[in-house]
Amino acid sequence: MLDIKLFRESPDVVRKNLEKRGDKEKLKWVDEVIELDKHWRETLKQAENLRHRRNVVTEEIAKLKRENKSITAHIKEMKHIPEKIKVLEERQEKLRQQLDFYLMRMPNLLHESVPVGKDDTQNVEVRKVGTPSKFDFTPKNHLDILLGLQLINQERANKIAGHGFYFFRKELVLLDFALQKYAMDFLVKKGYFLVNPPYMMRKGAYEGVTDFAFFHDQIYKIEGEDLYLIATSEHPMAAMFMDEVLDKNKLPMKFVGVSPCFRKEVGAHGKYTKGLFRMHQFNKVEQFVFCMPEQSWQLHEELQKNSEELYKNLGLPFRTVNVCTGEIGDIAAKKYDIELWMADGQYREAGSNSNCTDYQARRLNIKYREKEGLPPAGYVHTLNSTAIATSRTLIAILEAYQQKDGSVKIPKVLVPYMGGIKELRPPVKK
């Protein structure tokens, strides 16, 4: 959520940001926000003046009683003050709700380095790492590889849960868990605090984390409960300090969260959806940081370095892109995507790294103080970054490390986590 002071003091900053994002609809909202805020402040002042007048009249009545003078006129005036205050408070609350509706949907201010563009074809490549695999045979896609290895069952999963679910089998289960443990160990050694969050969240917390109206179609609701299945561990980690004030001396606070993720993936039509790429349930290891405002841009690069190092160690070719204005979403001020190379020669998104500046913290009311005992000094900054989303990383491993005989080599760094298994081999035909 943006600071209301921006609309009061620098509305052109908001307008230019919306123009850069190409968001014509919300550009129309700026004047509405300014007008609603003006009326809200006027109503607030009127109510405060009436409360002050009520106190003055109360004192005057007490004085008149001591002097045995008439208080009839004062009593008559006092009789109407509470009713007037109530009307103003109701109007004030209505204006506040209308104002919050717009403020909660206004996107974050973009960093100056974010490229302008309409879609992912206009993301800007920052660097490309690793050499794509060269095959002396026609490579298969990951789903055909897994079927050949008999490590996945789609039909039975579809039978009990519908499209977008799979039964992982045998060594594929081990490989998924190996990726999670590898990423967790890597980040814990770097000082990140390991968290396994609740897999459900209340609506109030979710509204603080993200644009709930936009994300609502992506998440699963628990019927009859004020609970939603999490789409990523980023969301419960972001909300865990909701309505709290953090000590400046304890910042930055760095977390690594591990959890399953549940997504409807509505709106994925026309996008790459083959096999494991867009699943309703997958596992992910996520980095999350709370920090001081002056620390966030340096930490944004640190998180990116961590993610890239994880993929380098796996020997997977990838590229990093600076996500353009048309793809970045409302929460982030700047976002990097890591795109993994796949056997059809395309690089596809495997994870993202976002600096949300104080945008999430304002929504969640997470502040910092200079030291214990002092009042809050401002809002913290929050950052989130995918360490490893296992499903898409599995795709890249299977396709990059596939062999002519249908087997798949295991990246060396994962062999210890696989109990010494160095390759996935097709079952022996009897």
Structure at a glance:
With 430 residues, the chain is of the alpha+beta class. The protein is 41% helix and 19% strand. The protein has 2 domains: 4-103, Helix Hairpins (Orthogonal Bundle); 120-424, Bira Bifunctional Protein, Domain 2 (BirA Bifunctional Protein, domain 2, 2-Layer Sandwich), CATH 3.30.930.10.
Shape: elongated
Q: What structural class do helix, strand and pairing data support?
A: alpha+beta
Q: Which topology of the largest domain does CATH recognise?
A: BirA Bifunctional Protein, domain 2
CATH class of the largest domain: Alpha Beta
What do you see in this structure?
This protein is of the alpha+beta class and 430 residues long. Helix content is 41%, strand content 19%. The protein folds into two domains: 4-103, Orthogonal Bundle (Helix Hairpins), CATH 1.10.287; 120-424, Bira Bifunctional Protein, Domain 2 (BirA Bifunctional Protein, domain 2, 2-Layer Sandwich), CATH 3.30.930.10. The chain has 14 helices and 17 strands. It has an eight-stranded mixed β-sheet. The mean pLDDT is 93.
Topology summary:
Blueprint: H1 4-9, H2 11-21, H3 24-27, H4 29-66, H5 72-103, E1 124-129, H6 142-149, E2 152-153, H7 155-161, E3 167-168, H8 171-189, E4 193-195, E5 200-201, H9 203-209, H10 212-215, E6 228-229, H11 234-239, E7 245-247, E8 253-262, E9 281-291, H12 296-313, E10 318-322, E11 334-341, E12 347-355, H13 359-364, E13 367-369, E14 378-379, E15 381-389, H14 390-400, E16 408-409, E17 423-424
Parallel strand pairs: 4-8, 7-13
Antiparallel strand pairs: 1-10, 2-3, 5-6, 8-9, 9-15, 10-11, 11-12, 12-15, 13-14, 16-17
Helix pairs in contact: 4-5, 6-14, 8-14
